[in-house]
Amino acid sequence: MFEKWASLSENLGKAGSEEGIILLDDELPGAARVTIEKKFSEHLGKDIYPITVEVYGWLVHTAFFSACEDALECADSMKLIIQVMENRNSWQADPKTVPPEI
Known about the structure:
This protein is an alpha+beta fold. The protein has one domain (6-87). 20% of the residues lie in helices and 36% in strands. The protein is built from 1 helix and 5 strands. The protein has one helix at 68-87, and strands spanning 6-7, 21-28, 32-41, 46-55, 59-65. The protein has a 5-stranded antiparallel beta sheet with strand order 1-2-3-4-5, covered by helices on one side. The protein is elongated. It starts with 5 loop residues before the first strand and ends in a 15-residue tail after the last helix.
């Protein structure tokens, strides 16, 4: 299903944008990137799993999960949505406009 996505395996184990350790770093070349990190939350007293989704030139969003499995499920969902957007050439439009419905 995600054959177009490439693992940026050289980043695994390195520090990520949310100051955690990168567990997953996948890219749809030239279009988007999805990264999952593992980070200890002092406030919660446990590990959390930030997932950062970037559609190049359009948006960057980070969400936080308390379970790695939930972050992985979200990553797969986001990759699917991004692929649908890519197939529709959605980011050819002006990024100031409202994105098309998916």
